Structure to design on (248 residues):
């Protein structure tokens, strides 16, 4: 049995809220997916992906199979325990067992994973925030779907490509600054026509605009931390980490 590596988010979530973030280690996938690849859409051996997913479920003591999504850089929010496996969505929420139960999950390899819970421990969610989804409002849509007052929502920013590595074009900066002039502070000049974007800062800004100010995490860099995380921009053919959250 594989021994998947990961860690629990450092945030003051209620005791009945559980979350787990995987790294790239502790699975059975061969290079270039070595070794804890959880994505079934990247060309890896399906048997290895299944073994890795099963190992994570056992190691993290998940109460149900995660709702694995087909992520499309959109804003749809699926519901664990209701929507079908593989449905197209870029966020998922889960309620208590009495409300249907389930495990919300998203996969990333540079894009920003964001986990949410309400302070009462009645609903949790996970969102996939690449720049397109972030600009499109995936975080706002996720908080709205949770149905909790934003000031009672906690968020955790998981490992993503860092602000010294995420080079983007003028069109990406324009997509954010056109919506909110304050977003300009999240872009540092790079090569001509290029900018270094700070996904963590953009996420905090957008969450703050809707009243979610209790935001934790951030500061990792999937691109730079070669020995810890997968990075699509660094390797192209690579695996995917998972960010999982559920309730007792």
């Amino acid at each position: 049995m594989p021994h998947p590596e990961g860690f629990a988010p450092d945030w003051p979530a209620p005791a009945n809220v559980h979350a787990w973030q995987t790294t790239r280690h502790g699975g059975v996938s061969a290079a270039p997916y070595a070794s804890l690849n959880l994505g079934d859409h990247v060309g890896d051996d399906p048997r290895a992906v299944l073994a890795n997913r099963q190992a994570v479920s056992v190691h993290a003591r998940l109460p149900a199979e995660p709702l694995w999504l087909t992520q499309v850089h959109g804003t749809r929010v699926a519901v664990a325990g209701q929507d079908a496996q593989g449905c197209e969505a870029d966020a998922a929420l889960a309620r208590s067992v009495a409300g249907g139960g389930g495990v919300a999950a998203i996969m990333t390899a540079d894009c920003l994973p964001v986990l949410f819970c309400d302070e009462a421990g009645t609903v949790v969610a996970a969102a996939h925030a690449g720049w397109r989804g972030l600009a499109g409002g995936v975080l706002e849509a996720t908080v709205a779907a949770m149905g909790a007052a934003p000031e009672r929502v906690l968020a955790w920013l998981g490992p993503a490509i860092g602000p010294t590595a995420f080079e983007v074009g003028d069109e990406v900066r324009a997509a954010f600054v056109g919506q909110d002039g304050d977003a300009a502070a999240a872009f540092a000049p790079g090569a001509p026509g290029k900018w270094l974007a700070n996904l963590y800062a953009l996420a905090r800004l957008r969450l703050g605009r809707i009243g979610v100010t209790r935001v934790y995490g951030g500061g990792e860099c999937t691109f730079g931390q070669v020995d810890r995380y997968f990075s699509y921009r660094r390797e192209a053919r690579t695996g995917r980490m998972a960010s999982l959250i559920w309730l007792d």
